[in-house]
């Protein structure tokens, strides 16, 4: 078909944060993204970006069209603009849940259109260099091979409906980001993103719910200080400073995610009942068995993903770490119990991990691979009431988020999310700055680790 950087054009339909990030990166690399209305002033300084009034005009002239819209509306948007797709074009999507996206493409796109979808496994505020970028093609029959060292610069190649030329063309386009390319089927993508994101998001969303229910700003309280607490606070604020639909689509539209969020709520509830019941031995037996199941196969010989020096560096609090009392760390105990119950080995998905997942795995590993710290958390859970009300609200929150996801209720999800986000909003600017620094430092520390 002769697509080249000089003659081909790229269209982006949907200009939220990720769509804008793609347009900026691709125009910097010399590609010509074609976009839709009301962005002319914002992109006036970028001569390679042309803004069009609607998606039909983008679709009919673009050689590669990327839909960057919410998973919940992807079918409606593709139904509207898909029939205008240029003959022989390549179409992809950027949603976090591929089942509805790929179904929409198959249903509404002309038969002569090739499908090579993608998903950047990071938010628009994270530098994409070195981060995983998943590329997805149809149909689901495939052969795969690994090219290179999987621990450094992995590229998993999968042959699908797309021609070699189309796959190479998309490869060239996406190479502008400097990301690590991973090739999967849609089904594989949804299972892995559920494993690496669904429960992670549920845990941080529940923390925000619990702090808001108790009318707390945790960085103002001396018992939320230092180390692990810094990660909990910064990442919770980072999530709530984003848009609600970023998390709702993945949770509600991905069947694997629903099951995992339900299990996380069950794990939180079961462990909390053991805590308030004073069942010390049963609590220790269950938690340590879960830890042995998740952190196995030589992981004890690996360096920790995170260290005291990194964890202590980024704090919104003026309190010193020495004033922080022991914490039951219910959120961390429950994540390992959840992984154990579902048979998930988190290290298996490091090749497709998000920055948030690496942080969450890092602090969880930090607790479970420190026997004294883990023992202290378990004894605190039984003997110390300092965090009991926080753990109660956290349990309520985990169950409420799970119910919201199970019912498939986007409006309830949005209402809960935005209400809590509004509570924390005054802290977002400072937290964003500190969170960006923390993310950059921790990613640099972990990017070479398995």
Automatic annotation (TrEMBL):
Residues spanning the membrane: none
Any one Gene Ontology molecular-function term assigned to this protein's record: prephenate dehydrogenase (NAD+) activity
InterPro entries: 6-PGluconate_DH-like_C_sf (IPR008927), NAD(P)-bd_dom_sf (IPR036291), Preph/Arog_dehydrog (IPR050812), Prephen_DH (IPR003099), Prephenate_DH_fun (IPR012385)
EC number: 1.3.1.13
Domain of life: Eukaryota
The protein's annotated pathway: Amino-acid biosynthesis; L-tyrosine biosynthesis; (4-hydroxyphenyl)pyruvate from prephenate (NADP(+) route): step 1/1
Domain Prephenate/arogenate dehydrogenase: 8-305
Keywords: Amino-acid biosynthesis, Aromatic amino acid biosynthesis, NADP, Oxidoreductase, Tyrosine biosynthesis
GO biological process, one term: tyrosine biosynthetic process
Keyword NADP included in the entry's annotation: yes
Reaction(s) this enzyme catalyzes, per UniProt: prephenate + NADP(+) = 3-(4-hydroxyphenyl)pyruvate + CO2 + NADPH
Record family assignment: Belongs to the prephenate/arogenate dehydrogenase family.
Protein name stated in the entry: Prephenate dehydrogenase [NADP(+)]
Organism lineage string: Eukaryota, Fungi, Dikarya, Ascomycota, Pezizomycotina
């Amino acid at each position: 078909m002769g697509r080249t950087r000089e003659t081909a054009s790229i269209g982006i339909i949907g200009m939220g944060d990720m769509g804008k990030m793609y347009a900026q990166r691709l125009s910097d690399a010399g590609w010509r993204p074609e976009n839709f209305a009301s962005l002319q002033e914002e992109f006036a300084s970028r001569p390679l970006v042309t803004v069009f009034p609607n998606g039909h005009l983008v679709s009919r002239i673009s050689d590669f069209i990327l839909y960057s819209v919410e998973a919940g509306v992807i079918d409606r948007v593709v139904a509207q603009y898909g029939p205008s797709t240029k003959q022989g074009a390549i179409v992809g999507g950027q949603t976090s849940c591929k089942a509805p996206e790929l179904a929409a493409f198959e249903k509404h796109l002309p038969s002569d259109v090739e499908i090579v979808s993608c998903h950047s496994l990071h938010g628009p505020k994270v530098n994409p260099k070195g981060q995983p970028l998943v590329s997805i093609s149809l149909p689901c029959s495939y052969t795969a091979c690994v090219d290179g060292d999987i621990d450094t610069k992995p590229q998993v190649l999968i042959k699908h409906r797309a021609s070699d030329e189309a796959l190479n063309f998309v490869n060239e386009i996406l190479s502008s980001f400097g990301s690590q390319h991973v090739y999967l089927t849609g089904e594989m993508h949804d299972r892995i993103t559920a494993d690496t994101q669904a429960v992670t998001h549920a845990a941080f969303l529940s923390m925000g719910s619990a702090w808001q229910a108790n009318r707390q700003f945790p960085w103002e309280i001396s018992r939320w200080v230092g180390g692990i607490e810094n990660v909990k606070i910064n990442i919770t604020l980072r999530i709530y400073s984003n848009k609600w639909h970023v998390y709702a689509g993945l949770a509600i539209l991905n069947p694997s995610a629903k099951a995992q969020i339900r299990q996380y709520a069950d794990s939180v509830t079961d462990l909390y009942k053991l805590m308030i019941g004073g069942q010390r031995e049963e609590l220790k037996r269950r938690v340590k068995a879960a830890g042995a199941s998740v952190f196995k196969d030589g992981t004890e010989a690996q360096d920790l993903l995170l260290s005291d020096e990194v964890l202590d560096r980024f704090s919104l609090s003026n309190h010193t770490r020495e004033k922080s009392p022991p914490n039951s760390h219910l959120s961390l105990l429950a994540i390992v119990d959840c992984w154990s119950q579902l048979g998930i080995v988190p290290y298996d998905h490091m090749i497709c991990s998000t920055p948030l997942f690496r942080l969450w795995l890092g602090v969880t590993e930090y607790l479970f691979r420190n026997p004294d710290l883990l023992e202290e958390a378990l004894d605190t859970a039984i003997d110390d009431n300092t965090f009991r009300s926080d753990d109660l609200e956290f349990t309520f929150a985990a169950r409420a988020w799970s119910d919201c996801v199970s019912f498939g209720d986007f409006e309830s999800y949005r209402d809960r999310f935005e209400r809590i986000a509004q509570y924390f909003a005054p802290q977002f600017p400072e937290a964003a700055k500190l969170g960006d620094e923390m993310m950059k430092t921790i990613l640099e520390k972990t990017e070479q680790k398995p």
